[in-house]
Amino acid sequence: MYGATVDPIEDIRTDEEKLAEFEARIARGEKIEPGDWMPDEYRRQLIRMISQHAHSEVVGMLPEGAFITRAPNLRRKLILLAKVQDEAGHGQYLYHAAETLGATREEMLEALLSGKAKYSSIFNYPTLSWADMGAIGWLVDGAAILNQTMLAKCSYGPYARAMVRICAEENFHRRQGQDIVITLALGTPEQKGMMQDSINRWWWPTLMMFGPHDTDSPNSAVLIRWGIKTKTNDELRQTFVDQTVPELLALGLTIPDPELRYDEASGHWHFGEINWDEFWNVVKGNGPCNAERMAARRQAHEDGLWVREAMAAYAEKHQS
Amino acid sequence: MTDTQWPRYMVLHQERDDRPHPHAGTVHAPDAEMALLNARDVFVRRPDCVSLWVVRADLIFTRTQEELTLHPDWLESIQPRGDTAETYYVFAKLTQKGQFSHVGEVEAENLPHALKVALQKYPDTRGLAWWVFPVKTVLKSTPDDITAMFAPAAVKDFRDQANFHALSVLRKLMRKQEAE
Amino acid sequence: MNANLKQALTDYLVAMADDELILGHRNSEWCGHAPILEEDIAFANIALDEIGHAIVWYELAADLSGEDRDTYANRVVYFRDAPDYRNTQMVELPKGDWAFTMLRQYLFDQFEMVRLEKLTQSSYASLAEAAAKIRTEEIYHLRHTRAWVRRLGLGTDESHRRMQAALNDLWPYALALFEASTRETLLIQASYIPDISILKTAWQVQVTTYLQEAALTMPTNSSHAIPPRTHHTEHLGGLLSDLQQVARLDPMAKW
């Protein structure tokens, strides 16, 4: 929804006709734009996914943001601040994409702050050392990029366009993360130890980021049919493992999975089973930092209320 | 107290003098001047911008190709009423993957009329979706703003992924290990 | 340039750099906690610019004193203790509320603008060049902070009250920006830097006019004298222990 509403056009087609034409458009690779007819379920799923994604960017500023003031040299400080700033930007682009579907940012933030809306569980884990800036950049952003590259091709135009912009910037995030990991892994024994500890803590939560197994993912089928997703959670997870494992091993780091081995026959890395109890527990709000993250967001929101009101009041008084 | 996130402004972003102003996204801002400043910070963190336009999102009138083809009678029903005309910008999305981009200007009496005139004036433009909005509602940066608002992004090289050599280091290490 | 002059100019550059660094650091604390998403982004840009300017000044100081410009800034930032920092007290104060942060930034931006305009005419060429570059970014900062100050001053009763409180707190610290050290006399005589105490009047007229337009009352009681740049509040120590903690884990390591 962009704005000016003048004489809404009445659609005289039957629901079956509309749905058939909608699915045909998606099959032809066309993009759905705001204003086009879409099933309510398509709109609902998109608002759910996009707003969750936006919330993840915004909450995701907190764990890394805690290290901006502590970055170990000025270059790293500029890079980390610019990266966390980009995350605010990505949240901003994504809220915009959801707004085109009729959701308002006020509603979406209310849903986040009241605990109704979800965000990526990865951000409910604590950042304990500088090495975590490397692990988050490489693993967490690396995992996110796979998902986002897929979504850049999704059937909803505004979401796809936001993703194209985000992917371009996200590569900087992953590169700076890799750069930190390499520096520490090839640094002093203490630095390498710090890096290994960080990989040990972030590896499994990163694999969980791709979501439940396809068989346990209730929304997967419809999302794939309507061209919102084009790959399943398990496919993306495997791509991530195949891509990342040899690089980490080359740095002399280890991966905290005793079952990890290269399978010549399939050409893939076999990895152990994810602890799904932990996954669901964090999703339900019982992770190590859920309460802390929400408290920080609520605090910023409440502290900012007088500011937003004052700016709106000034605009009201000084309308030209 | 209920929250306000301020009104939304559409941001149009020109990369070079000789290019049009495609759509970049929106910003929330209390007024047009703040919207222009916010647009700079949100969309010009990286270089390649010489001009920004902002316009309140609720002043933009939009129709998709689907809406227009399904209801040719709607367009028929739009007739000039002899009201005072003003100038409207016309934007269209021209490719499936593309962004809305500036097509031109039309003189019209109101928003739907502006769209009708645009479709007549640009018959060869196959828009998948259209926007029209009054020129006078747009706040624009000026050429004088380039040095202070847009040029500095070019020296912020810490955001440039080309400055990180992680990949070449990793490849070298992996080759070395294979050789061993 | 004789040794005395060289030392005085190095100290001057480091003091300017320290101001920018500490202010940028304080501003960066807002990233993720700003009143609205757009401002998380905008204010991070200001923080990035200030830290960037600090680096420019540290590098000039390194060139002048024959130090390695690639390592000098990190050495002085991460391995100096609070008593050796030469920033003005205003920039080390905790970030406070959004009114305090925005007003501090405005007062500092306007101060920098006045100083940079003169520094672009410095007879020390590399200082003049750097000042010209930094000035372009400050033009934008000032546009941003002026827009905010005006709106918050005239917005609601609450925003006005908070702005007035911030102004009352900040004013003596802002006046201290114009206290020149005795060693600066040498630099002024060599036309390297402007006489900052002379610029005070111009600055005071600008900010007074602007703040009054925003319905703020200028504090008259400036009995609270702010000590020179060699003295700091207790806040700087806390700031530095945060800033330096990772770097000091292993001073010889590359990060």
Characterization of this structure:
By secondary structure, chain A is mainly α. In chain A, 64% of the residues lie in helices and 2% in strands. Chain A contains 13 helices and 2 strands. A two-stranded antiparallel sheet of chain A has the order 1-2. Chain B is of the alpha+beta class and 180 residues long. Chain B has 2 domains: 1-59 and 142-180, Ubiquitin-like (UB roll) (Roll); 62-136, Phenylacetic acid degradation B (Ubiquitin-like (UB roll), Roll), CATH 3.10.20.520. Chain B has helices at residues 32-43, 65-70, 72-77, 111-121, 146-150, 166-179; strands spanning 8-14, 23-28, 51-56, 61-64, 86-93, 100-108, 129-134, 139-140. Chain C is mainly alpha-helical. Chain C has 10 helices and no strands. The chains are: A mainly alpha (320), B alpha+beta (180), C mainly alpha (255). Chains in contact: A-B, A-C, B-C. At the A-B interface, α4, α5, α7, α10 and α13 of A face β2, β4, α2, β7 and α6 of B.
Note the topology.
The complex is a heterotrimer of chains A (about 325), B (about 180) and C (about 260).
Chain A: H1 15-27, H2 40-59, H3 61-65, H4 74-99, H5 105-113, H6 131-151, H7 157-185, H8 189-208, H9 220-225, H10 233-250, E1 261-263, E2 268-270, H11 276-286, H12 290-303, H13 305-317
Chain B: E1 8-14, E2 23-28, H1 32-43, E3 51-56, E4 61-64, H2 65-70, H3 72-77, E5 86-93, E6 100-108, H4 111-121, E7 129-134, E8 139-140, H5 146-150, H6 166-179
Antiparallel strand pairs in B: 1-2, 1-3, 3-8, 4-7, 5-6, 5-7
Chain C: H1 3-28, H2 37-64, H3 69-79, H4 89-92, H5 98-119, H6 125-154, H7 157-175, H8 184-189, H9 196-213, H10 234-244
Helix pairs in contact in C: 1-2, 2-3, 2-6, 5-6, 5-7, 5-9, 6-7
Protein structure class of chain A: mainly alpha
Mean pLDDT over all positions of chain C: 95
Strand order within the widest beta sheet of chain A: 1-2
Total helices of chain C: the number is 10
Please identify the structural class of chain C as seen in this structure: mainly alpha
- How much of the sequence of chain C is in beta strands? under 5%
Rg measurement of chain C, Å: 18 Å
Total strands of chain A: 2
Pattern of helices and strands of chain C: HHHHHHHHHH
**What is the H-and-E element order of chain A?**
HHHHHHHHHHEEHHH
The beta-strand count of chain C equals 0
Give the count of helical stretches of chain A: 13
CATH topology of chain C: Ferritin
> What radius of gyration of chain A results from the CA coordinates?
21 Å
Uncertain residue segments of chain C: none
Q: Estimate what percentage of residues of chain A fall within beta strands.
A: under 5%
How would you characterize the largest beta sheet of chain A?
Answer: 2 strands, antiparallel
CATH architecture of chain C: Up-down Bundle
Q: Tell me, briefly, the overall form of chain C.
A: globular
End-to-end Cα distance of chain A, whole Å, is 26 Å
The first-to-last residue Cα distance of chain C is: 36 Å
